Structures are given as structure tokens and as C-alpha cells.
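Sequence only, no structure available. Ideas?
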Amino acid sequence: MIRVLIADDQSLVRGGFRMILEAHDDLRVVGEAEDGRAAVRQALELHPDVILMDVRMPELDGLAATRELARAGSPARVLILTTFDLDEYVYEAMKAGASGFLLKDVDPPDLVHAVRVISRGDALLAPQVTRRLVERFMHGRQEWPQLAELTARERDVLLAIARGRSNAEIGAELYLSEGTVKTHVTRMLQKLGIRDRVQAVVVAYESGLVTPGEGVLDP
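Reply:
I predicted one. C-alpha cells follow.
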């Protein structure tokens, strides 16, 4: 059972999403929040697997709420929802710790699919899209001292993720089983203090490990 929290300031939107999700046996809506502050409070109390988070809400917007949940160590995966199809929102959502991004007019089957994908710990943005956004919006390099904690193999995996490789492709390139790759990915994310592959791509670019245009710096 995938537990979902819906955070949106419009009751009709919350009701519509609830109806769509609860039509499926593996999805359960455990709460609704009408503003970002309530979303943070309920997320910490109800422990949902996935949060549908509107960008624009009173008290605390969706991006700020996502940042607060990340700082609080919430394991919930955040799926950002908005009526604004703007790259800036997507990039800020990625930086805040969101695992995916959808427009509110998403078709019901796509919404259900997104919740299931996010709940598995996967990201809903293709690596190629992530790279395009990072290259467009990043402003200079940032220090990531946690990179020094990575083993050589974990660093290789991070670079491969930044190039858009799947676990199967990484395994083929590095002569590793897919299960071993998953283990390296999990440890790499933990050491960097990030949530998923989307943020891993951001780290690789902003730290200078990967340069725009796919060039990779020497270790």
C-alpha cells in the first residue's frame, strides 16, 4: 500500500486527486493539507510514502515545504504539482529535494503512474532533462565536501548517472551486476546526503565533476 498526502490550497483539486488515487487498491490517501505549513506537519505525523505538493500555497509554498521536509529527514518522496510549465520551477523543485514534477492537468493514468514511480525511489525526470536544466540554471560551482567520502567506484557510478546511464547500462560499463550497482547508488546517495538520482545529477554538475556539454573533469 502506497500512502499519499495531498497538499494543495484548493479543496476541489485535493478531492479530485483523492478520487483518482483511491480508485486503485495499492494507493491510499492518508491526509490532505491546505497550505505548506500543514503539509510539513502532517508529513511528519502521518509518514506518507509520497506527497503531492502544490508549488503555490499560503503560509509556506511547496518548494519551501519540500526543503523543510528534507532538513527534517522525512523519507517521503515529493511530487511537485503546478499549473506553471516553467523550467525555473522544475529546477528549484529538484534543488529543494523533490523527486518529480507534474502539471496539475496531468491525465489520471499518468498521475497514478507517477505516484508509483516516486514511491519506488525512482525519479520522474529523465536524466537528459535534468542535465539540460542544470546546465541552464546553475550559477557557478558549489563546494560538496561529501564527495571526498565516496569510494572510487561510487564516484564512477555518480558520473555515469550524470551522463544519463541506467543501472543496467552502468553495470555493463563497469562490469558489475545490476544489484551491485544499486548498492553503490544507495551508498553514494547516503554519503552525499541527497535523496535520489535527480539530485545526484545536480551535485555532479554543480561540484564541477561534470561540465556542461558532457565533458568530465579529471578526478
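The chain is about 50% helix and 15% strand.
Hope that gets you unstuck.
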